[in-house]
Design a protein that fits this description.
This protein is mainly alpha-helical. The protein contains seven helices and no strands.
Length: 201
């Protein structure tokens, strides 16, 4: 009886408050993602991988501005202090063990590209969530979030190509064949969000 009364007194969820927290969490994660993709692009230099990563970095920065515009339309203030904390956390994360104490390891490419892919998976989940919210809130342009979701899918494809190339360089001996690349159907399945993460995008 007492537990039933306790549950009845629990405050009902506030969707506006939860949406404010959710979008600011993703905005904060995007700060770390922006720093990470630009650092990875610099590490890849002027070669083809570096050029592709710089293009991705520009897109990710544009996606972040799109999120800010959506938050403005929803009258949700951006908590920039939280984003600063995430940037600092990304810098601390550079000290991860990668098999070398001083120089950059080839394994760094694999781990960083995996982190970037996971971040874009989280960003895709964000756009899909906002597409659902747009069904009942006309302040969100459904066409815009649909286009952003499509672009996130393409970004995931590019990152997966780069990740597999890095795996071939770091983890596959030279006398073996190149890493197996999944079929188109397999890639489509792998591009769907499979874990709830923040933008490391």
């Amino acid at each position: 009886m007492s537990s039933d009364r306790g549950r009845s007194r629990s405050p009902s969820p506030d969707p506006d408050r939860l949406l404010r927290i959710y979008l600011n969490d993703h905005y904060a994660g995007s700060a770390a993602g922006d720093a990470l993709v630009r650092r990875v692009a610099r590490a890849h230099g002027q070669g083809p991988s570096g050029r592709r990563l710089r293009g991705l970095a520009d897109e990710i920065a544009e996606d972040r501005e799109s999120l800010v515009r959506i938050m403005t339309a929803l009258d949700i203030p951006v908590m920039r202090a939280r984003a600063l904390i995430m940037r600092c956390a990304e810098k601390v994360g550079r000290a991860k063990l990668n098999g070398r104490l001083v120089s950059r390891s080839p394994l760094s490419d694999v781990l960083e590209l995996e982190s970037l892919r996971l971040g874009v998976e989280g960003k895709l989940a964000l756009w899909l969530s906002l597409g659902e919210v747009a069904r009942s809130d006309d302040r969100i342009d459904a066409g815009t979030v649909h286009r952003l979701a499509d672009r996130a899918e393409r970004q995931i494809e590019q990152l997966e190509d780069l990740r597999l190339a890095a795996v071939g360089t770091a983890l596959t001996p030279g006398d073996r064949t190149t890493p197996h690349r999944p079929s188109a159907a397999g890639r489509q399945r792998s591009h769907r969000p499979f874990v709830k993460v923040r933008w490391v995008s």
